[in-house]
Write a structure and sequence with these properties.
The chain is mainly alpha-helical. The protein contains 24 helices and 5 strands. It has helices spanning about 5-15, 20-35, 40-55, 60-75, 80-95, 100-110, 115-135, 135-155, 155-175, 175-190, 195-215, 215-235, 235-255, 255-275, 275-295, 295-315, 315-335, 335-390, 390-475, 475-505, 505-510, 515-525, 545-565, 605-615; strands at about 530-540, 570-580, 580-590, 620-625, 630-635. A hairpin with a 5-residue loop joins strand 4 and strand 5. It is extended, with a radius of gyration of 38 Å.
Length: about 650
């Protein structure tokens, strides 16, 4: 299959809510498009993938994919593709609740010159959706009518029917089901059953919801069952789930709890395959409600737990509000009034939280308008005053303003300089303290190392010699054996003491210099999974200043220990070089890597910086997740 055929298949599966198959075909089309540089098909692939993630409820992922499509449209300099990509991004933002950003993008689209009618129709429709979500129903209907005007002019009965259905949905939300039903019936009259069975079934479900709201249960059941049969025949799992949920709600309204639970379970099976979190959350709550009514408390708890987990993971306040209400009913029914009170309080808090968010948005919009009006009035007043003033008064005001501004600037500059000096002094004092701590720590380590090597090891050696003497004088085999075991223990203690002394103050560093010490450090470092340590040096001097050698050695120790603990690297390269008046050391690994901008500095890194401060050194870290890490240390030698 070529890229176009793959995208066509993906579109078909998407239209039939078979999202996994649609995703697979879109990814295949993307791979072909990237390989053959088919930019328009690549744009289609990203648009489809974004739409699939949108339907599944993964809105940020959808936004990222739609932005990739926009980048391709920009490269092609194709206004209609740009409009389509922007329209998709606006839908993502609107569903995320970022209504102002969505509105700005959609307004940008409708102002594109010579935009094709089909893109203008989509933009008006999505503006209607955006205003509907903000509960600005008057503006929503206005843009739906603009969209309807274009579709009627083009004799596009399918788009006209969908727009009429959207207007009907507004009246459903406004608790005007009879008026909503009029729009649904107008929409259905425009459609041809042989061509538009999918859309007919969807709008019929809306009509069933309208009859349900009007408590015309017989007509609602008749329409919903007929729509469900058509949807099943067309194999539209998304629409089937929605129709099942509407039918289940109808049964609950009639008190037919068992029938409702059966139909909700059908919807649950579909949603577990589709993985559309918002609809899955809703169906789980309906099943919990059924089980509360049937006093199946344990099963109700299971459904509520799962729906709450979904709502919390997606920060769905409205969903959590419904869950807390159901939990209150559940705990009250089974007599756990303390828990019921707790969930009722959470229910009230969630309502308050939702109200606060909506109020904050409304307040922000009102404030913006108020500030704009206020600024306009102030400007008008200032213009009026300026027109009335004499030239002498104008000059006086200008001079006064200049003097005031100059005084403020001088004061602010002086204040800033004072604070800057104080900050610099504090930083210098802090750095001096850290350097002093590092130097003191190094001196203590060196003293302990020498004491271990020169005193403790010699004492143990003397003890061993004495034991050997006693061993030669003894005739008891058991006594001789015990002395031999003790001698072995002393040998081990001597070896451990030498190892500790070497770690604190390596013999090779003291006697042979930094290069030999680093070589020995890598050779003797323990290996868990056969890691390779590679050392290379290009220095003209055998020895450097003692404090430079010691601190660079300690820094190398710390970096290698960090690699061993965190990076899980296979190869570690240590490079030591002398460049004019500088000593350079780099430590590179092929491990996990990290993001230096977001990583929190640990005690080891702070210790390294303190040591570098003491020898006027600098450090640069280059790393990306999955690409290893390179640390470059530079020390001045003069």
């Amino acid at each position: 299959m070529n890229a176009k055929e793959c995208n066509d298949s993906a579109q078909y599966y998407y239209d039939h809510s078979q999202f996994d198959k649609a995703w697979k075909m879109a990814v295949q089309a993307k791979s072909i498009g990237e390989r053959l540089e088919l930019q328009e098909e690549l744009f289609r692939s990203y648009s489809l993938m974004g739409s699939i993630e949108f339907r599944r409820g993964w809105l940020r992922k959808a936004q990222q994919l739609h932005k990739k499509g926009l980048a391709i449209a920009d490269d092609l300099d194709n206004a209609n593709l740009q409009a389509k990509a922007l329209s998709n991004i606006a839908s993502d933002l609107s569903k995320l609740g970022e209504y102002d950003s969505a509105e700005q993008i959609l307004m940008q689209i409708v102002n594109i010159p010579e935009l094709e009618d089909d893109m203008l129709l989509i933009a008006y429709g999505r503006l209607g959706v955006n205003f509907k979500r903000r509960q600005l129903n008057g503006q929503a209907i206005e843009y739906y009518i603009r969209s309807l005007t274009i579709s009627e002019k083009r004799h596009d009965s399918l788009s006209s029917a969908r727009t009429l259905a959207n207007i009907g949905n507004i009246y459903i939300e406004q608790k005007e089901p009879a008026r909503a039903l009029e729009y649904y019936q107008k929409a259905l009259l425009l459609l041809d059953s042989s061509k538009h069975a999918m859309t007919i079934s969807g709008i019929s479900v809306f009509a069933g919801d309208a009859y349900l709201a009007m408590r015309n249960y017989d007509q609602a059941e008749k329409i919903l069952k007929r729509s469900l049969a058509i949807i099943k025949r067309l194999n539209l799992p998304d629409s089937e789930s929605y129709a099942c949920e509407s039918l289940g709600i109808l049964y609950l309204e009639q008190g037919k709890v068992h029938e409702a639970m059966k139909i909700f379970n059908e919807a649950l099976l579909i949603q577990r395959k589709l993985n559309m979190w918002d609809q899955l959350e809703s169906i789980l709550m309906q099943l919990a409600d059924c089980n509360v009514r049937l006093k199946n408390f344990r099963l109700a708890e299971v459904f509520l737990n799962e729906s709450q987990q979904i709502a919390e993971s997606h920060h769905h306040i409205i969903g959590l509000q419904s869950i807390y209400r159901l939990r209150t009913a559940l705990d009250s029914t089974r007599g756990d009034f303390r828990s019921a009170l707790n969930y009722f309080q959470k229910f009230v808090q969630s309502k308050d939280s939702l109200f606060t968010l909506e109020k904050a948005k409304m307040t922000e919009e009102v404030n913006k308008k108020f500030e704009a009006d206020k600024k306009a009035k102030i400007i008008d007043e200032q213009k009026h005053i300026i027109d009335q003033q004499r030239s002498k008064e104008q000059l006086f005001i200008i001079v006064l303003i200049l003097v005031t501004i100059s005084g403020c600037i001088i004061y602010l500059v002086a204040r800033r300089r004072t604070r800057l000096k104080e900050t610099i002094v504090q930083e210098q004092q802090q750095k001096q303290k850290l350097v002093a701590i590092v130097i003191a720590q190094e001196r203590i380590q060196q003293k302990i190392a020498r004491d271990l090597h020169d005193s403790f090891v010699q004492v143990l050696g003397a003890a061993k010699i004495n034991l050997e003497s006693v061993k030669m004088l003894s005739t008891s085999p058991e006594f001789v054996t015990k002395i031999a075991e003790t001698t072995t223990i002393i040998d081990r203690a001597c070896q451990d003491a030498r190892t500790i002394a070497h770690q604190l103050l390596p013999y090779s560093l003291e006697k042979h210099g930094l290069a030999m010490a680093l070589q020995e450090l890598l050779e003797k470092h323990p290996r868990k999974n056969g890691e390779q340590f590679i050392f290379k040096q290009e220095t003209t001097s055998l020895r450097f200043q003692s404090d430079i050698e010691v601190n660079l050695y300690r820094i190398a120790q710390e970096l290698i220990n960090n690699i061993f603990k965190h990076a899980h690297a296979n190869q570690v390269h240590v490079y030591l070089a002398q460049q004019s008046n500088h000593l350079l050391m780099s430590v590179n690994d092929d491990g996990a890597g990290f993001d230096p901008k977001t990583a929190e500095p640990g005690a080891g890194l702070l210790n390294i910086r303190s040591r570098l401060q003491s020898i006027r050194g600098t450090m640069r870290i280059e790393s990306k997740p999955g690409e290893g890490t390179t640390t470059i240390i530079q020390i001045p030698l003069t």
